[in-house]
Design brief:
With about 120 residues, this protein is mainly α. The termini are far apart. It contains six helices and two strands, in the order ααββαααα. The chain has helices at about 20-25, 25-40, 55-65, 70, 80-85, 105-119; strands at about 40-45, 50-55.
Length: about 120
């Protein structure tokens, strides 16, 4: 167990917390139930990938509104980098969805919105 991670349910080797989430008919309901036990910020494992789950209005607002620059970039999955990568690194993709939150992303988003409005 990593010491600097938020609390969360212990996962199985290789599959992580997938079996626990698969038992539930509605995964978000299970995550809400887990947040009551572990708090508004918790760590879960989807396979071998770590995911940090935030819940609760104030926590989400703090992360996504007040500290947007810190939390806005998304992880680019290796298969997406292979399919949509620009060839400059193993983590860079083209497009808006998995692009890092920076000035290039802002330009792409502005262009996409203007194009869709005029379509």
């Amino acid at each position: 167990r990593h010491n600097n991670l938020p609390p969360g349910p212990r996962g199985w080797p290789l599959v992580g917390n997938i079996p626990m989430l698969a038992k539930s008919a509605f995964a978000p309901a299970k995550l809400t139930e887990l947040s009551k036990q572990y708090g508004d910020v918790m760590a879960i494992w989807i396979g071998r990938d770590l995911s940090i789950v935030i819940s609760g209005y104030q926590t989400i607002r703090n992360a996504l509104v007040k500290r947007a620059k810190v939390f806005s970039s998304r992880k680019a999955f290796p298969i997406m980098v292979d399919a949509c990568g620009d060839g400059t690194s193993s983590t860079t993709t083209k497009g808006v969805l998995f692009a890092a939150y920076d000035s290039n992303w802002k330009q792409l988003r502005k262009f996409a919105l203007m194009t869709l409005r005029n379509f």
